[in-house]
Design goal:
The protein has eight helices and two strands, in the order H-H-E-E-H-H-H-H-H-H. The chain has helices spanning 2-55, 57-67, 85-91, 101-125, 131-146, 149-158, 162-168, 172-178, and strands at 71-76, 79-83. The protein is rod-shaped and about 100 Å long. The chain has one domain (39-178).
């Protein structure tokens, strides 16, 4: 009787162990599937944000202004004017706040662009999207903005675009442009001699 009881005990324990292992494997696979679905949803949300930015006429105009010096825009109904980089920089000033129609067009365009960049930062900081999913095509335009870092940084600060400024700081081109000469870059690792 003892060997039958021992065999039953071994079979029972083995069955329980196999059941536990099966449950753990299924749990792991379910978790991996949920992680993949979450990653996909985040990527879809990021694509939707990028699409919304690129389909907004004013934000899209800001990107074009950065990329194309002298492109003509309809600045008010039925009135077109070329927007140069010099005009762009004059328009985003934070003093002498009387603006021409072309300058108001530029300001509205950049306000919309910075609004969207702020939304990107909000979504990233809340874990709703990953930076790598919204990084492109914005990285190209951030590099163009970086050429005028001090002017745009002042604009962002003066007009309360803190989230947009935080988003821009995620890009190396923006951080490098803002580093003061003679100071180490904030992201540069200090390397000590092992002597």
């Amino acid at each position: 009787m003892n060997s039958i009881q021992a065999a039953s005990w071994v079979i029972g324990v083995t069955g329980v162990l196999v059941g536990i292992i099966k449950i753990l494997i299924e749990f792991r696979e379910t978790r991996l599937q949920r992680d993949r679905e979450l990653r996909w949803k985040k990527a879809e949300a990021a694509k939707s944000l990028n699409d919304e930015l690129l389909s907004d006429p004013e934000a899209s105009a800001a990107l074009t202004i950065l990329d194309w010096d002298g492109r003509e825009f309809e600045v008010v109904k039925d009135v077109k004017a070329p927007i140069t980089h010099d005009l762009m920089l004059a328009a985003v000033r934070t003093v002498n706040l009387e603006f021409s129609d072309a300058e108001m067009f530029v300001r509205d365009a950049f306000d919309n662009l910075f609004y969207y960049l702020g939304i990107f930062e909000h979504y990233i900081s809340r874990g709703l999207v990953d930076f790598m999913d919204v990084e492109q095509p914005i990285a190209y335009y951030v590099k163009l903005l970086s050429k005028h870092h001090a002017i745009f940084e002042l604009y962002l600060t003066n007009y309360g675009f803190g989230l947009a400024a935080a988003f821009l700081k995620r890009f190396e081109s923006w951080r490098s442009a803002g580093a003061k000469p003679g100071e180490p870059h904030p992201n540069r690792r200090l390397v000590r001699n092992a002597e």
